[in-house]
């Protein structure tokens, strides 16, 4: 414990210095604590309530909704809202909760967005009261290998924690819905009915055979990719009953109709996408388990939108210019966004900024994700042009051509500053800048440059 207190004291002093410099969101003090005491997360005392949110996709938006509601309710919340979802970020956030004597007096709740791959190395030490899992999907080959590999990491977490935690799980995900079945944890499921999503057929399936008997997985309906009402003809493997069940979406009122214990309630949506409807639903499930009133949750959701890290919008001269996150390397996330681009009915141009920042220093990085991602969705009549910039522009060009997209609709430039020269606003309703999550600031700057060029042309 002496080593722990040395780590705590030094790191809190460094954290105070960072705060004076206006760098409170730098997780370096947490990294320092972890280096000085590898068991730091075990020994630091926790606030009365700890909530972890994990999964391949959706954890940032869901975490933000949970945090924002708790803050609105007057709780003192420590939240890694800048995405520091590894040991260093957890160390910093938990340090905020304690004083120099390791007394948890400063915060009421810790909301931790948690990386799914390292969950068993971190949450088994932190022992959260709730772990919400959004889904498990195919992700970066470099970081996460394949869904079964990630499932094993998350499953080990629940097996170690046992009944110390409550598992909030997606009933429509044939992968993550299997979690914690034998762990002793209380399992609570949320799920969704056939809302008429009519998903496109995807190239790569995250799971295709029954994990129990090996027969093909069947669906009464699919909502997107492998998410839906699944079952197996040869055994009893099927989507579990959902305590919180979204029966329908009222598109006119932009509301999700959720059935809970036989009663139906309407909750506002934060966007028109199916995957964000799931984020809202998982937030509802977690907050209802905490005892929050249904009407309170609905009233709060009317004030919320998708986090600006993921989506922003500016309108000029009748055209909407948007930034929209589409994680590169993450096959499921990118494919889901591409499918949305095809289904979203506006006439649009797309700008793709999908090269990871670190790839510039690792030119031998695998490009297999390009061929597992459903670029075929972009072969849609409402997408008039696709402009690609960055050092991998020729790889993207080849993939777009292999997807059957007409060469005349593709513009590829290595120098990203030239992208603005190729945006054609004639007959266009929207321009989407789809960006890798490393490029949040760059994407906004690109969007603003495009808007500025439009203003210059309008002034002539």
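Sequence proposed for the structure above (460 residues):
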């Amino acid at each position: 414990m002496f080593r722990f207190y040395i780590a705590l004291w030094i790191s809190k002093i460094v954290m105070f210095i960072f705060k004076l410099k206006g760098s409170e969101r730098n997780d370096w003090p947490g990294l320092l604590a972890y280096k000085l005491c590898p068991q730091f997360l075990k020994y630091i005392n926790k606030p009365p309530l700890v909530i972890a949110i994990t999964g391949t996709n959706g954890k940032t938006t869901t975490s933000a909704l949970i945090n924002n509601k708790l803050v609105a309710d007057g709780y003192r919340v420590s939240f890694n809202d800048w995405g520091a979802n590894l040991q260093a970020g957890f160390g910093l956030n938990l340090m905020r909760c304690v004083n120099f004597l390791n007394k948890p007096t400063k915060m009421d709740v810790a909301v931790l967005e948690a990386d799914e791959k390292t969950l068993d190395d971190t949450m088994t030490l932190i022992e959260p009261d709730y772990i919400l899992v959004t889904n498990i999907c195919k992700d970066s080959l470099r970081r996460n290998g394949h869904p079964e590999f990630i499932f094993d990491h998350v499953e080990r977490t629940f097996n170690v924690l046992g009944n110390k935690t409550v598992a909030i799980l997606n009933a429509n995900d044939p992968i993550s819905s299997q979690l914690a079945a034998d762990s002793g944890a209380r399992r609570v499921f949320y799920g969704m009915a056939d809302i008429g999503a009519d998903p496109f057929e995807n190239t790569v399936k995250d799971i295709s055979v029954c994990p129990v008997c090996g027969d093909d997985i069947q669906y009464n309906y699919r909502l997107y990719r492998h998410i839906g009402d699944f079952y197996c003809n040869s055994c009893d493997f099927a989507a579990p009953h959902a305590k919180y069940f979204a029966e329908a979406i009222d598109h006119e009122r932009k509301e999700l109709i959720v059935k809970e214990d036989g009663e139906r309630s309407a909750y506002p949506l934060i966007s028109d996408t199916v995957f964000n409807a799931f984020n809202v639903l998982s937030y509802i499930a977690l907050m209802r388990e905490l005892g929050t009133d249904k009407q309170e949750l609905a009233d709060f959701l009317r004030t919320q939108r998708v986090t600006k890290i993921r989506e922003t919008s500016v309108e000029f001269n009748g055209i909407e210019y948007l930034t929209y996150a589409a994680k590169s390397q993450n096959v499921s996330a990118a494919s889901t966004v591409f499918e949305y681009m095809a289904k979203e009915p506006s006439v649009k141009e797309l700008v793709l900024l999908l090269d990871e920042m670190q790839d510039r220093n690792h030119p031998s990085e695998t490009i297999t994700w390009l061929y597992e991602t459903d670029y075929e969705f972009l072969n849609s009549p409402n997408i008039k042009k696709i402009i690609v910039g960055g050092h991998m522009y020729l790889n993207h060009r080849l993939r777009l051509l292999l997807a059957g997209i007409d060469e005349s609709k593709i513009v590829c430039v290595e120098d990203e500053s030239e992208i603005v020269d190729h945006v054609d606003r004639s007959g266009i309703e929207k321009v989407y800048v789809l960006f890798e999550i490393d490029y949040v600031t760059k994407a906004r700057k690109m969007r603003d440059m495009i808007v500025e060029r439009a203003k210059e042309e309008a002034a002539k």
